[in-house]
Request: fold
Amino acid sequence: MGLSIAVCIKPVPDPKHYDKIKIDPVKKTVVREGISTILNPCDKHALEAALQLRGSDGAVTVITMAPPNAEETLREALAMGADAAILLTDRAFAGADTWATSYTLASGLKKAGPFDIIFTGTESADGATTQVPAQLAEWMDWPHLWNAVTVEQTGEQTLKVRTKAENEWSDYQVTLPCLLAMSRESNKPRLTSLMGVMKAKKKPLTVWCRPDLDVDDAALGMKGSPTQPGAIFEPEMGRKGILISGDVDEIAAQLVEKLRTAGLAIETGDVCAPGGGNV
Amino acid sequence: MKMTNPADWKGILIIGEINNCRVQPVSLELIGKARELKAGCPAVGEVAAVLIGSGLSGSLAEIEVTGVDEVILVDHADCALFHNDLYAAILKQIIDTRKPSVVLFPATARYQDLASILGIRADTGVAAHCVDIRINEQAEILAVVPAFGGKVLGDILCPAHRPQMATAKPGIFRQGEPVPGHKPKRSLFDASTIIADTMKKTRLLALESSVCAVPEGIPLEKATVVVCGGWGMGSKENWALLGDLANLLGGAVGCTRPPIDEGWMPDESYMIGTSGKVIRPKVYIGVAVSGSSHHVCGMKDSDLIISINNDPKAPIFEVSDIRIVGDAKQTLKGLSDKIREIRSAK
Reply:
């Protein structure tokens, strides 16, 4: 029997356009008008890992908790090669932090399963907390590894997984079922073909709302979230920059002076002159 | 969902990170922040730090001098390798017995993972990657966290659950002034029962750890001068000009996300930004960097910021002390040549 694999994905505002995001000065809400929604870039690596591990007799189900228009993002994942999609959507889920999000996702996955493996990305581009993979694994009561770079099936029920921390690799053996958050370095996600897009239209996409899930209302959405948002603001960035102009040689000469003033020893190449002052 | 009585919870617990028997600087930075919070609001309570690993005696001196009130050591041969399930089980017990009001974790690959797990096991909220922490009149913490790549900052509160947990990346907070001769209370935590119980039921086995290829030259976060290139460098040939200038200035080369995707830089260890490194060098030189909020969040606290970009409207200029509107390649080459000229004339 092939592996039954789930992949958690998230529609996010396109990170290429985050500079257009503004805060409404009156309503104090985030304004993201005109920014298109895309499949979270990290999640493509999770989907690619799943498609590679699926083999000929496995199945890959993508799942998301999002507003109803997330169907488009799910279709995109189906076009990449996933077999089925599930959308968890309900007003009751809105405003969830990672605690309530992972709780709701776990409930959907338990209903849709059983799965052998859940793949996720390492983080979402918008919130970027990195917390959902581990928290989802906790609700599932499964072992998990974050930032996996390689996955190798070593037995019917075992995987050998290499994870990457800042400057170190760690190798683990993990028994199925398990959750793996895939690193951006782990693979190169496949492109979507026209054939894939055509096929995706006929693949099953299931929508589940609050009444379809076995969940405690007190643990859903913003009401069920231990963290609560306070004020939002834009970071203080302003510096009074001076403009240096001229031909290349003039600019270089002025820059050298600025570097000297900053304490660099231009003549000797020492990183920092004694006293940090002029040389 | 449980509700807790905040009055039963007191003090700040720092989860220190050990790697190869060394206390990671981010642990000392978190202690620095905690001491600052305590100085501003003594009602917060004592600052304790916990270290998990094997053979920790060598790490003690480094952590004691930070002025922390108590050091809790979990020193056991079975803790030599990082194991998220086991480390989290140990920390859960420490949190349950001590009831700290605040728990701070490094936002590193391994320790943010622990923070996430404990958010569920301790049934509480975790503020991720905070860039500041304040205390309000109710002695609650307000964690300031970035969203949308740092374009927006927001306060996060955890009003009804304890402990209040938060993570912060290396480089965000500053280490406090050392307190020479300071002798904090020292506690040993016997983890042998938890280790036996956890290893009996866990389905995860840590096999081994190995050091990845260490980046050449000075690590970004320690460099006095950082020359950072963006997508506008255009080619691998042009990219070499950054290394040339960095070498002349005894600095390091950093990058934004696109040069990694283009293959001009090997991996994310060179990336500056909210999902990369946070740096504050003496001099930052951004070349052909547009200045997305993601990147700016990682370098805006540098002492001197010099930017070179051919687009006068590039957002990076908003955070720059010195702006040069011009061709990246020519300007870089011109600067390196000028430095060589000065040196050869000497």
